[in-house]
Design goal:
It is a single chain. This protein has 125 residues and is α+β, with helices and mostly antiparallel strands. It has one domain: Arc Repressor Mutant, subunit A, CATH 1.10.10.10. It is 58% helix and 12% strand. It has 5 helices and 4 strands; from the N terminus they run H-E-E-H-H-H-E-E-H. A hairpin with a 7-residue loop joins strand 3 and strand 4 (87-90).
């Protein structure tokens, strides 16, 4: 027997965002900044990462500076370049922050996916 919900369940998609705030409610790190840091490391360039994600360089710079100010150490290691251009990589602390958020995100993703599956199963009853 089909429930009243069943005809629409195939059209439901789960989306969510995670972020962390300081005690005053100011954002520290979330999905967007995490993706930016990962892409900077991959591309070796903040500008290339900004271009790919469609973020402005100025806003990104400000957001990453807020993270650095909060933790009290640099996340980026920047080298100005000549004709070849410069490079930007994550510092060891930046890599550690990204790796920790990767692990945290995986854990939360699994929990949320399980909750979503349980939700969908409940509607099928």
């Amino acid at each position: 027997m089909e429930t009243k919900f069943e005809s629409k369940l195939d059209n439901i998609r789960l989306h969510y965002k995670m972020w962390m705030e300081d005690s005053s409610g100011s954002g520290i790190l979330g999905d967007g900044k995490w993706q930016m840091l990962k892409l900077i490391e991959k591309k070796g360039s903040m500008k290339a990462a900004c271009d790919e994600l469609g973020y402005t360089y100025r806003r990104t710079w400000g957001n990453l500076k807020k993270i650095e100010d909060f933790f009290g150490f640099p996340l980026l290691d920047k080298h100005r370049g000549g004709a070849e251009g410069g490079t930007t990589q994550l510092t060891p602390e930046g890599k550690r922050l990204v790796a920790a958020f990767d692990k945290f995100h995986s854990s939360v993703d699994a929990t949320i996916q399980k909750g979503f599956t349980d939700f969908m199963d409940e509607l099928k009853r």
